[in-house]
Specification:
D-amino Acid Aminotransferase, Chain A, domain 2; 7 helices; single chain; nine-stranded antiparallel sheet; nine-stranded mixed sheet; 2 domains; binds 2-OXO-4-methylpentanoic acid; alpha+beta; 18 strands; D-amino Acid Aminotransferase, Chain A, domain 1; binds pyridoxal-5'-phosphate
Length: about 350
């Protein structure tokens, strides 16, 4: 293995030693298999390829100062994948199988878990898709569940520095009664055009408005949105956004810090009143938002003019990271010690 520059990792694919796989055939899950191959053999008529019968998850493991490896909120990710499987009629991966597969994939790749000092993490990517053939639009009879891992740095290149986002009414990510609340590949395919435009224009992501009325804030590309004002943590309620586990943690931590928390519809014009704004997610952690440009009206909303995150965002970030790395106690049992 070439030596890894742990401190300068970006969020990109890296080959690691092993991944784990499990097939669902004849109505039941088989044994968890270990593979050192980066490839899979897929049926040409697999529903995952043709009809988007696919769901994935993303979670992280952290090496602490004490040398222990902590996996963050794995049960929540397992539950979300169960929900996604329900949403698009896939075979369900039990919580036990999900947790076992994640832990196994981490243990098989221990040398890729970044050192504590690097501030990086091991990203764990579970994947479930219809592997059985169907040419009519219907759910597959066979499924493949797999987990692979890789060391990663921040999702947005700015890391924990403010990043800029754009709003455009020309794109929808998910329909109000569609699949936005599930973590399925089709939502991400639907976001590529807008995301690409944002990158070309120099923005890190798109802040989506609700698809029906274009009145309320939905979420930011690959992360949820939160705003802070009047000592209150505010995050959108919407049927078409992914229920972010990070967001739930931040709401709890905000309450612990004495903030009020609100999960409700957030009108776009309310942006003007926020003192701080951010994107949150496993990959994004907290990405403070510096400015949001409405490219349809030319109006801008500024949250940071000095290139620094807001005070409350910073406190939330530090508290979350401290629990993830084991620097501070884990009062809610969010962490699973891998070893
Ligand atoms: N929203 C979308 C669309 C995402 O892809 C993610 C990433 O998983 C999130 C929000 C954040 O969710 P979580 O905090 O569970 O990673
Ligand atoms: C994550 O935060 O884990 C995600 O899955 C977002 C992603 C699309 C990279």
């Amino acid at each position: 293995m070439n030596t890894i520059d742990w401190k300068n990792l970006s969020f990109s694919y890296m080959k690691t030693d092993y991944n784990v796989r499990c097939y669902y055939r004849d109505g039941k899950w088989g044994e968890l298999e270990v593979s050192s191959s980066e490839s899979i053999d897929i049926h040409i008529a697999a529903t995952g390829l043709h009809y988007g019968q696919e769901s994935f998850e993303g979670l992280k493991a952290f090496r602490g100062k004490d040398g222990k490896i902590r996996l963050f909120r794995v049960e929540e990710n397992a539950k979300r994948m169960l929900n996604s499987a329900d949403g698009i009629l896939m075979a369900k991966v039990s919580e036990e199988l999900f947790v076992e597969a994640c832990i196994k994939a981490i243990k098989l790749n221990l040398r890729f878990v970044p050192p504590y000092e690097s501030g990086a993490a091991l990203y764990v990517r579970p994947l479930l898709f219809g592997s059985g053939p169907k040419i009519g639009v219907s759910p597959a009879d066979e499924y493949l569940f797999m987990v692979f891992v890789m060391p990663v740095g921040p999702y947005f290149k700015e890391g924990f520095k403010p990043t800029n986002m754009m709003v455009s009414r020309d794109f929808d990510r998910a329909a109000p009664l569609g699949t936005g609340r599930y973590k399925v590949g089709g939502n991400y395919a639907a976001s590529l055009q807008a995301g690409n435009l944002a990158h070309l224009k120099g923005y890190s992501a798109v802040l989506y408005l609700d698809s029906k009325e274009k009145k309320y804030i939905d979420e930011c590309g690959p992360a949820n949105f939160f705003g802070i004002k009047n000592n209150t943590y505010i995050t959108p309620e919407s049927d078409s956004i992914l229920p972010s586990i990070t967001n739930k943690c931040l709401s709890q931590l905000a309450q612990d810090m004495g903030l009020k928390t609100e999960r409700r519809k957030v009108p776009f014009e309310e942006l003007e009143t926020f003192e701080e704004a951010g994107a949150c997610g496993t990959a994004a952690v907290i990405s403070p938002i510096g400015r949001i440009d409405d490219i349809d009206t030319g109006k801008s909303y500024e949250f940071s003019t000095d290139g620094k995150p807001g005070k409350i965002s910073e406190k939330l970030y530090n508290r979350l990271r401290a629990i993830q790395y084991g620097d501070e106690p884990d009062p809610y049992g969010w962490v699973t010690i891998v070893e």
